[in-house]
C-alpha cells in the first residue's frame, strides 16, 4: 500500500487532541518526548524515491520502511537497512562552497550538474521526521522505536532535536518541514528542510568539542551545504515574530547565581503564528568544563501561566491561539542559574552576546530595551543603554538603563571597576578600568572617542546612536566587541607592552579601536537580519575605520591607509577556492585553513570589496573626487534608508543603483555572492 505523504489539516487536528493516559492535554515536554522517541508502526511500500527537500532516498532491495508514530500520529518514517542518497545542490552560489566543504569526505561522491552539484552516498539506514509522512495503524512490537545509532546521535546532540522543528511547523502552519538523520558508511548526516524559513541545510554530525570554545563535549553539526528554498539568497523571508520591546531584571544575590525575569512584547509579522521559538541558553560551562544549568521556573503569556519547553539552548512558548499579522503578545520568563561565572577567576562577570535572555536572534529582535541590575558590593554594574539611575544602598549596587532606539544583543557586566568619564556636546563616555584606576589610558580613550565620533558623524550624516555609553576593560588580549551602548576592549588598550609575548597585540590598536567605534553605525544604527549579512557590518566598519585612520593621523594617515589596504589584499590572496564572502558563515571548519579563511574573508576580502567598489565609482565617474562624492552619497543614503532597522546586501545594491543610476547586481554576484576577488588597479 503506497504511503500517504500529505494530510496536514487532519494531522494538526489529531496532534492537538493527542492526550496522555491521565486524560489531560499533553504538555510540550511530553509531546516533544513522543516525537523524539517515536514508536515504529506499519510497513510502507514506497512507489517512488522519498523526496526530502532536494534529496532523494531510495531503499535497497530487502530494506523495510516503516511509519514512525508519536502518540499514535504519523510523524515520520524509518529505513530499516541500506538505502541510497542523492542530493542536488541547485543554487549556483551554494555549489562552490559545498564543493569546498565536501572535498575531504570521499564517501560522499560529487559530480557537476549544470551550475550546481550532485551528491551521492550509500546509507546504512535513515530516519526522516515530518508531519504527513507515513500512515496511521498498528504499532510494531512494544519497545520498537528508533534504531540504536539514531538514539545515540540524539542523546549526544548539541543541536535542537527534531521535535523543535515539528512542533513549530504544526503550530505555525509550516508544511513540508523535514528533519532527517542519515547513517552513512563513514559519515553521519543531518538534513533539515524548512520552507517557512526558506532554507535547507545538509550537515555532517560528529562527536567533538564545541567549535565556539564553550568546552562542551557532544555531537555537533557542521555545515556541508546550505541553499535557499523558493527564493534567491538576497530575498529575505520575513520573521514570524519580532521583539519590539524588552524589559529585563537581573539580580545577583551573591556568588555566581543570577535570577532573571524578562518581559518581551512580540509583534506578529506572519499571520497564523501561535508559538514562539526563542534562543535561550540552558547551560553554561566554566573554564574547568563543569556544567552549570539554567532553569526556567515559569512562563506567562499575556499575564497567564503558559506551557513551555526549554532545552538545547532554545525556548518554545505556545500561545492560546493563532495570531493575526501585527497583533502583539507579551511573554514573561523567570529563570535562574550560575550565569555570573568569572572568566579565569577574575573579579567580573559578563552576560555577553550569547542568548542569555530569550530572543530569536537577528531577525527576531528589533527592540527598545529597559534593563535593571542589582548586585552586591563591591561589584559595579554596567548594562546596554543610557543610565536612568545608579544607586548604592544597603550593601547593594543598583543600575537602570534604557535603549530608546530599536537594538539587538543587549549585554550586562559587573565587576571591580574604576570609572573615568567625559562629556562633550551632550554625549557622555565612561571608561571602566579593571581592578585599579588607569586614568591616563582612560582619558586617552575618551579623547580618541570624541575625535572618532566627529569623523564618523560627518561621514555618515548620522549622529552616534548612544548619548551615554561605556568602554569596559576585559582582562584578556586581542579582543574588541561593540554591542549596543558598551564597547569591550582588552588590556592592550589600557597599558603598554611589557611582555615580548604580547607586543603584537599593540600593533594595530588605532584601526581596531576605530573599527569598534564604527560598529555604533554598522551593527547598531543599521543592523543585520541574517548571518549572511554580517559581512556588511564587518566590512564597512573595517573600511570606514581605515578612512578615519587616514584623516585622524594627519601626515602619516595616507601611508597607514595604504598599508591597511595591502594587508587586505594579502589576506584575500591567501583564501582557498570555494569561499564566498556572503556565505562565509557556511564554510565548514574542517581544517586549520578553513578557520583562517573565515577570518580572511571577514576582515580581508570584505573591506577589500568595499575599497574596490569605491575605486570602481572613481573610474566610472572620471576622477577620485567625483567617485568619492558618489561613495559618500551611498554611505549616507544606505544609512538613512535602513536607520534603526535591518540593512541587507539587497538594500545596499538597490541604494547603489539609485545613487548611480546603474545596475550593480552583476558586480555583487561576482565579488560578494560569488567567489571572485576584485583586482585593484596597479
Could you characterize the architecture of this molecule?
With 682 residues, the chain is of the alpha+beta class. It folds into four domains: 8-228, no CATH class; 238-412, Sandwich (Immunoglobulin-like), CATH 2.60.40; 416-500, Zincin-like (2-Layer Sandwich), CATH 3.30.2010; 527-673, Neutral Protease Domain 2 (Neutral Protease, domain 2), CATH 1.10.390. The protein has 13 helices and 34 strands. Strands 1, 2, 3, 4, 5, 6, 7, 8, 9, 10, 11 and 12 form a twelve-stranded antiparallel sheet that branches. Strands 13, 14, 16, 17, 18, 21, 23, 25 and 26 form a nine-stranded mixed sheet that branches. Strands 28-29-30-32-31 form a five-stranded mixed sheet, with helices on one face. α9 (557-573) crosses α10 (592-621). It starts with 7 loop residues before the first helix and ends in a 9-residue tail after the last helix.
Average residue-wise pLDDT = 93
Low-confidence residue ranges: 1-19
Strand content: 35-45%
Number of domains: 4
Keywords summarizing the entry:
single chain; 682 residues; alpha+beta; Immunoglobulin-like; Zincin-like; twelve-stranded antiparallel β-sheet; nine-stranded mixed β-sheet; 13 helices; globular; disordered N terminus
SSE layout:
Layout: H1 8-17, H2 28-36, E1 39-44, E2 50-52, E3 55-59, E4 64-70, E5 73-80, E6 83-89, H3 94-102, E7 109-113, E8 116-129, H4 148-156, H5 162-172, E9 178-184, E10 188-194, E11 199-209, E12 217-228, E13 241-254, E14 257-268, E15 273-279, E16 283-285, E17 291-301, E18 304-305, E19 309-311, E20 314-323, E21 328-337, E22 348-351, E23 365-376, E24 380-383, E25 386-393, E26 396-407, E27 412-415, E28 417-424, E29 427-434, H6 439-460, E30 468-474, E31 480-481, E32 486-490, H7 509-518, E33 526-527, H8 534-552, H9 557-573, H10 592-621, H11 624-641, E34 645-646, H12 649-660, H13 665-673
Parallel strand pairs: 13-23, 29-30, 30-32, 33-34
Antiparallel strand pairs: 1-4, 2-3, 3-6, 4-5, 5-8, 6-8, 7-8, 8-9, 9-10, 10-11, 11-12, 13-14, 14-21, 15-20, 16-17, 17-18, 17-21, 19-20, 22-27, 23-26, 24-27, 25-26, 28-29, 31-32
Amino acid at each position: 500500500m503506497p504511503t500517504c505523504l500529505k494530510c496536514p489539516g487532519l494531522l494538526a487536528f489529531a496532534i492537538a487532541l493527542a492526550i496522555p493516559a491521565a486524560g489531560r492535554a499533553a504538555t510540550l515536554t511530553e509531546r516533544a518526548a513522543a516525537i523524539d522517541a517515536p514508536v515504529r508502526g506499519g510497513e510502507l511500500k514506497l512507489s517512488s524515491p522519498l523526496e526530502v527537500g532536494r534529496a532523494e532516498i531510495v531503499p535497497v532491495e530487502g530494506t523495510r520502511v516503516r511509519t514512525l508514530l508519536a502518540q499514535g500520529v504519523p510523524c515520520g518514517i524509518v529505513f530499516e537497512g541500506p538505502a541510497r542518497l542523492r542530493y542536488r545542490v541547485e543554487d549556483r552560489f551554494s555549489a562552490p562552497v559545498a564543493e569546498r566543504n565536501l572535498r575531504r569526505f570521499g564517501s560522499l561522491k560529487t559530480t557537476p550538474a549544470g551550475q550546481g552539484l550532485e551528491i551521492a552516498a550509500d546509507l546504512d539506514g535513515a530516519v526522516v521526521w515530518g508531519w504527513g509522512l507515513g500512515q496511521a495503524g498498528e504499532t510494531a512490537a512494544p519497545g520498537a522505536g528508533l534504531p540504536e545509532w539514531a538514539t545515540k546521535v540524539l542523546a549526544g546532540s548539541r543541536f535542537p532535536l527534531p521535535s523543535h522543528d515539528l512542533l513549530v511547523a504544526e503550530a505555525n502552519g509550516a508544511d513540508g518541514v523535514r528533519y532527517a538523520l542519515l547513517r552513512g558508511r563513514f559519515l553521519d548526516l543531518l538534513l533539515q528542510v524548512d520552507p517557512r524559513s526558506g532554507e535547507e541545510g545538509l550537515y555532517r554530525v560528529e562527536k567533538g568539542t564545541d567549535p565556539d570554545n564553550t568546552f562542551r563535549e557532544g555531537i555537533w553539526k557542521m555545515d556541508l551545504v546550505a541553499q535557499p528554498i523558493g527564493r534567491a539568497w538576497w530575498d529575505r523571508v520575513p520573521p514570524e515574530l519580532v521583539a519590539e520591546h524588552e524589559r529585563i531584571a537581573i539580580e545577583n544575590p551573591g556568588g555566581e547565581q543570577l535570577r532573571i525575569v524578562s518581559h518581551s512584547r512580540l509583534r506578529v509579522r506572519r499571520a497564523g503564528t501561535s508559538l514562539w521559538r526563542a534562543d535561550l541558553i540552558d547551560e553554561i560551562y566554566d573554564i574547568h568544563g563543569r556544567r552549570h544549568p539554567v532553569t526556567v521556573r515559569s512562563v506567562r503569556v499575556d499575564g497567564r501561566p503558559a506551557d513551555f519547553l526549554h532545552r538545547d539552548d532554545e525556548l518554545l512558548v505556545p500561545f492560546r491561539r493563532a495570531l493575526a499579522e501585527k497583533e502583539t503578545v507579551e511573554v514573561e520568563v523567570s529563570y535562574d542559574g550560575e550565569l555570573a561565572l568569572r572568566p579565569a577567576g577574575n573579579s567580573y562577570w559578563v552576560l555577553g552576546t550569547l542568548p542569555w535572555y530569550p530572543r530569536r536572534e537577528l531577525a527576531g529582535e528589533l527592540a527598545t530595551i529597559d534593563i535593571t541590575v542589582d548586585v552586591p558590593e563591591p561589584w559595579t554594574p554596567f548594562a546596554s543603554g543610557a543610565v536612568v539611575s545608579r544607586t548604592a544602598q544597603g550593601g547593594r549596587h543598583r543600575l537602570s538603563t534604557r535603549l530608546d532606539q530599536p537594538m539587538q544583543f543587549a549585554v550586562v557586566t559587573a565587576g571591580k571597576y574604576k570609572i573615568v568619564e567625559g562629556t562633550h556636546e551632550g554625549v557622555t563616555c565612561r571608561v571602566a578600568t579593571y581592578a585599579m584606576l588607569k586614568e591616563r589610558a582612560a582619558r586617552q580613550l575618551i579623547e580618541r572617542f570624541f575625535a572618532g565620533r566627529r569623523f564618523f558623524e560627518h561621514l555618515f550624516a548620522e549622529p552616534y546612536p548612544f548619548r551615554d555609553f561605556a568602554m569596559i576593560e576585559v582582562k584578556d588580549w586581542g579582543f574588541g566587541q561593540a554591542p549596543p551602548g558598551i564597547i569591550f576592549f582588552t588590556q592592550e588598550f589600557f597599558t603598554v607592552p611589557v611582555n615580548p609575548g604580547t607586543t603584537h597585540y599593540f600593533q594595530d590598536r588605532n584601526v581596531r579601536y576605530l573599527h569598534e567605534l564604527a560598529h555604533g553605525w554598522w551593527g547598531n544604527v543599521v543592523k543585520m537580519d541574517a548571518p549572511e549579512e554580517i559581512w556588511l557590518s564587518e566590512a564597512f566598519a573595517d573600511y570606514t575605520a581605515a578612512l578615519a585612520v587616514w584623516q585622524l593621523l594627519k601626515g602619516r594617515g595616507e601611508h597607514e591607509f595604504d598599508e591597511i589596504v595591502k594587508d587586505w589584499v594579502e589576506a584575500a590572496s591567501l583564501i582557498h577556492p570555494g569561499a564566498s564572502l556572503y556565505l562565509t558563515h557556511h564554510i565548514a571548519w574542517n581544517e586549520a585553513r578553513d578557520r583562517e579563511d573565515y577570518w580572511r574573508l571577514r576582515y580581508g576580502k570584505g573591506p577589500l570589496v568595499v575599497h574596490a567598489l569605491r575605486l570602481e565609482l572613481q573610474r566610472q565617474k572620471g576622477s577620485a573626487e567625483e567617485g568619492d562624492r558618489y561613495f559618500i552619497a551611498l554611505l549616507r543614503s544606505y544609512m538613512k534608508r535602513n536607520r534603526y532597522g535591518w540593512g541587507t546586501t539587497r538594500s545596499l545594491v538597490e541604494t547603489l543603483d539609485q545613487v548611480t543610476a546603474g545596475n550593480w547586481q552583476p558586480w555583487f554576484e561576482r565579488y560578494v555572492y560569488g567567489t571572485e576577488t576584485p583586482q585593484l588597479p596597479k
